[in-house]
Amino acid sequence: QLQASGGGLVQPGGSLRLSCVASGFTFNDYSIAWFRQAPGKEREGVSCISSTDGSTYYADSVSGRSTISRDNAKNTVDLQMNNVKPEDTAIYYCSAGGVYWGPGTLVTVSS
Question: Pairing between strand 56-58 and 66-71?
Fold first, then answer.
């Protein structure tokens, strides 16, 4: 299973760090992705990190102000987001290879 944490209320221009902790499967075998879904919108892929070479992907909407990282020893993947914007408001989910999903964590960007 996966468990995301780190959400909350953040002011525009601030930073947040989301964490995803995995258990119950071989974490190293899976690429880990962050998705988000804003109210009334479709789910959007935000970022992904490979299980093999650590290569990363960022959606245009967060590129340049986000960093994804993984710690295979701790079975965790973090997503650091800086200069957050109101449009980053969403429920954020982590997924292992699209196979395992966890409950999301709500991020609200508002002053």
Answer: unpaired
- Tokens 């102000």: give the residue: 65
Cα distances from 57 to residues 31, 39, 45, in angstroms, run 11, 24, 10
Q: What is the per-residue pLDDT across 54-64, written as a single tens digit (0 to 9) for each?
A: 899 999 999 99
Encode pLDDT of 34-51 as tens digits. Answer: 999 999 999 999 999 999
Give CA–CA dist 29/52, Å, rounded: 8
Burial class, 45, CB count within 10 angstroms (exposed 0-12 / middle 13-18 / buried 19+):
middle
